[in-house]
Amino acid sequence: MSESEQDEISELRVDGVIDTITAGELEEVVEALIKRGRCRILIDLAGVDYISSAGWGIFISHIKDVRANNGDIKLANIVPNVYEIYELLEFDKVLKVFGSIDEARGDFQPVSHSTGEVKKKANK
Q1: How many structural domains comprise the chain?
Q2: Host H or E run for residue 43
Q3: Residue 27 lies in a domain
Q4: pLDDT digits (tens, 9 = 90+) for 24-60
Q5: How far from the centroid of its chain's Cα atoms is residue 114's Cα?
């Protein structure tokens, strides 16, 4: 797992499987980001072959906290078999998935640097 921060968006790259054994490490990273006020989280899942209920639980359990702090959790580059489970569990009602890092980044609302608040994008 690797982490980078730019444009006030924290980007995590996760590889392998997210199961009961590895979910704890991912949860520690997500919780540390939230404690530091880094609530705009993009998770690149291109290298993830499997996510167990423990892994999905991390995303779902933290979504309320990050959104309460003008943030969000966005997922990118999900492989087809993981995406099938995402749809089956109906997480598409809670979490957004994007085909690329750039698409996910573009979906975050801009932040006003003077106030630190999220600026709403105008509807066209």
Answers
A1: 1
A2: strand 40-51
A3: yes
A4: 999 999 999 999 999 999 999 999 999 999 999 999 9
A5: 25
